[in-house]
Amino acid sequence: MCGGVVAGLVVVAASSVGAQGDPAAGQVVFDQKCASCHSVAADLTHGLLGPNLVGVVGRTAGTVAGWDFSAALKNSSTVWTEENLNKWLTDSTAFVPMAQMDLKVPSRIEREDVISYLKNLKPNESQKAK
Fold this sequence. Notes:
45% of the residues lie in helices and 0% in strands. It has 130 residues and is mainly α. It has one domain: Cytochrome Bc1 Complex, Chain D, domain 2 (Orthogonal Bundle). Helix 2 (23-33) packs across helix 6 and helix 4 crosses helix 6.
């Protein structure tokens, strides 16, 4: 009986948000599904339809300077944790109703990979001051 409980906990832990994704695979998914709108440029330039995502993990939604966010996203007070990014990538409009970006990444593995990639994108000290 105890072995079954331990096995069940291992399955739950393995499927939880924050599981290790593959940043290299995440970059491929990002390039295919996100890069047409979002930038990850070192100079923090914005993408065509969305803000730069360098340093997104830990940032409050709707706070990138120089970007006009929807009222729904600005008023959501969402902090982009791994868990919230997973919810956003699963179904953005279910997570933040009336969000302008309608996104669904159905694959849990792809979501974990993209989140792992985004976690590695950190602004340098001079960029943080801007």
